[in-house]
């Protein structure tokens, strides 16, 4: 094992990477955050990432589409629609990794969109599972759908600005 570590250190020096001493490596390893530890231990191949993404996205889209079958029962609709959204959101973590997903979600450009979307998911689940009021659940699902659109637009450059300007011109009435 020691020879393997020495070979890895030589390869690092050849490609220009910094070579760490054992004490520094031990200190850094003990200070890893949860997400870094998760990314390090859950290394997937590219093929596995695409399979995970496809399966999770397919399951999410299936739940979302099946929720239309129970549209007139807002409680069941809210649960299946929200579950589908969560699976579709989680599918992107397979492509880019959970740490990068969370980092991108907390980026200053989309922190408000993320907060709105996650809060609307929590509100929809609360209304569907705890309150069990059809009208409140339906309103929460509309809020969730709006949050999903706004969150999705945050990944397209200038999309939120364009949509905001379109709404401002459509609803701008001068007397």
From TrEMBL:
Is Transmembrane helix included in the keywords of this UniProt record? yes
Q: Which UniProt keywords are listed?
A: Membrane, Protein transport, Transmembrane, Transmembrane helix, Transport
Provide the leader sequence positions.
Answer: none
What GO biological process, any one, is recorded here? protein transport
Give the transmembrane region(s). 50-71, 77-97, 109-131, 137-158
Task: Provide the protein's localization.
Answer: Membrane
Q: Which family, according to UniProt?
A: Belongs to the SFT2 family.
User: According to its UniProt entry, what is the function of this protein?
Assistant: May be involved in fusion of retrograde transport vesicles derived from an endocytic compartment with the Golgi complex.
Could you identify this protein by its name? Vesicle transport protein
Give the taxonomic lineage as stored in the record.
Eukaryota, Viridiplantae, Streptophyta, Embryophyta, Tracheophyta
């Amino acid at each position: 094992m020691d020879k393997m570590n020495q070979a890895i250190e030589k390869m690092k020096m050849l490609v220009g990477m910094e070579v760490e001493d054992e004490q520094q490596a031990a200190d850094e390893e003990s200070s890893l955050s949860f997400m870094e530890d998760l990314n390090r231990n859950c290394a997937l191949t590219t093929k596995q990432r695409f399979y995970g993404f496809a399966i999770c996205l397919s399951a999410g889209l299936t739940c979302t589409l099946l929720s239309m079958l129970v549209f007139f029962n807002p409680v069941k609709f809210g649960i299946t629609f929200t579950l589908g959204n969560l699976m579709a959101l989680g599918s992107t973590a397979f492509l880019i990794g959970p740490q990068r997903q969370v980092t991108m979600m907390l980026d200053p450009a989309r922190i408000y969109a993320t907060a709105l979307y996650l809060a609307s998911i929590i509100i929809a689940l609360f209304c569907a599972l705890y309150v069990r009021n059809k009208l409140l659940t339906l309103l929460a699902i509309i809020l969730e759908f709006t949050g999903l659109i706004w969150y999705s637009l945050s990944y397209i450059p200038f999309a939120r600005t364009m949509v905001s300007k379109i709404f401002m011109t459509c609803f701008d009435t001068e007397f």
